[in-house]
C-alpha cells in the first residue's frame, strides 16, 4: 500500500471535523461535525482538501466516498452561525471561494466519487453531493435546496451542476419550490441515482466500491474521463476514445485479462 494511504478500516481524524479511512480500494471521507449538522466552514473545507492531499494519490485507490458521520446528517451546507459574523464580502468570499474550489476539485478527481447521503442534505449539502459522480440516498435521507426561502441563491456553483444533472425545468422546480425530498422523491427528480429501501447509503456505496476492487484502475480512470468529456467536450470524445482504447489494449491489465481468459481463471489486476 502506498505510504500516503490511510490504513484500511482505521479512521484518521484531522482536528477540523473530517474523518478519513480506507475500505479496500475505496477512500471514505466523512464530515464529522454533528453539533453543527455536519456543516462546512473554512477549516472544514481546508481539512477535506488536506485529506485529499494525503490519501487521494494512493496508487491502489479506485474510488472515493463522501459522507457524513453519525447518520443523522450528510451535510447541511455552510456553517450559518460562523457566516453571521461576516460584516463585508471579503470574509464571505474567502470562505465561499475555498469551498467552491474544493467542490471543483472533487468534481475533477480522476477516480469516481460517490456521495453516500444518510440523513439530511440541505443547501450546500446538496451542492456537495452534486459535485460527486454518483449519489446514493439512504431510507432516512432528506434533500432540499431552501435558499429561495432565505433570500439567497446556492453559492457553491450548485445551480450549474443541478441543471446539468436534472435539466432546466426540474432545476427550476427544485430551486423555486425549496421543498425537502425523501430518497424516493429525490430519485424521481434525478437528484440521486440510487434510493435505498433499507440499510444505509454508506453501506450501498461501499458495496458499489468493493465491486471495483478487482477492476483495472487504468480502465476506471479512462471511463470517468470519457464520460465526463461527453458532457464537457463532446466533440473530442471519439478521438479520446480512439487513443485510450489503443493505449489500454497494449497495457498490462489487458494483457493479463487476455492471458487469464485463455487459461480460464480470473485476471490478477495490478494493485499499484
From TrEMBL:
Keywords: Isomerase. GO terms for biological process: fatty acid beta-oxidation. PROSITE patterns: ENOYL_COA_HYDRATASE. This is Enoyl-CoA hydratase/isomerase family protein. The keyword Isomerase applies. It comes from the Bacteria. It comes from Zeimonas arvi. CDD domains: crotonase-like. The keyword Signal does not apply. It holds the Pfam family ECH_1.
Amino acid at each position: 500500500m502506498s505510504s500516503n494511504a490511510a490504513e484500511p478500516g482505521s479512521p484518521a481524524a484531522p482536528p477540523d471535523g473530517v474523518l478519513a479511512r480506507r475500505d479496500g480500494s475505496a477512500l471514505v471521507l466523512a464530515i464529522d461535525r454533528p453539533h453543527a449538522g455536519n456543516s462546512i466552514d473554512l477549516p472544514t473545507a481546508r481539512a477535506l482538501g488536506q485529506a485529499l492531499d494525503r490519501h487521494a494519490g494512493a496508487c491502489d485507490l479506485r474510488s472515493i466516498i463522501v459522507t457524513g458521520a453519525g447518520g443523522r446528517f450528510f451535510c447541511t451546507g455552510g456553517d450559518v452561525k460562523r457566516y453571521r459574523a461576516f460584516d463585508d464580502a471579503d470574509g464571505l468570499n474567502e470562505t465561499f471561494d475555498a469551498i467552491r474550489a474544493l467542490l471543483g476539485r472533487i468534481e475533477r478527481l480522476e477516480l469516481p466519487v460517490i456521495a453516500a447521503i444518510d440523513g439530511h442534505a440541505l443547501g450546500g449539502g446538496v451542492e456537495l453531493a452534486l459535485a460527486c459522480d454518483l449519489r446514493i440516498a439512504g431510507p432516512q435521507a432528506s434533500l432540499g435546496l431552501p435558499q429561495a426561502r432565505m433570500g439567497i441563491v446556492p453559492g457553491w456553483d450548485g445551480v450549474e451542476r443541478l441543471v446539468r444533472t436534472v435539466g432546466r425545468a426540474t432545476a427550476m422546480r427544485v430551486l423555486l419550490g425549496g421543498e425537502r425530498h425523501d430518497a424516493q422523491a429525490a430519485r424521481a427528480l434525478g437528484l440521486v441515482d440510487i434510493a435505498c429501501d433499507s440499510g444505509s447509503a454508506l453501506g450501498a456505496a461501499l458495496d458499489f466500491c468493493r465491486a471495483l476492487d478487482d477492476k483495472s484502475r487504468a480502465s476506471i480512470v479512462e471511463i470517468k474521463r470519457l464520460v465526463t468529456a461527453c458532457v464537457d467536450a463532446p466533440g473530442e470524445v471519439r478521438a479520446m476514445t480512439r487513443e485510450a482504447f489503443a493505449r489500454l489494449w497494449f497495457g498490462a491489465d489487458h494483457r493479463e485479462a487476455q492471458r487469464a481468459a485463455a487459461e480460464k481463471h480470473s485476471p490478477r489486476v495490478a494493485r499499484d
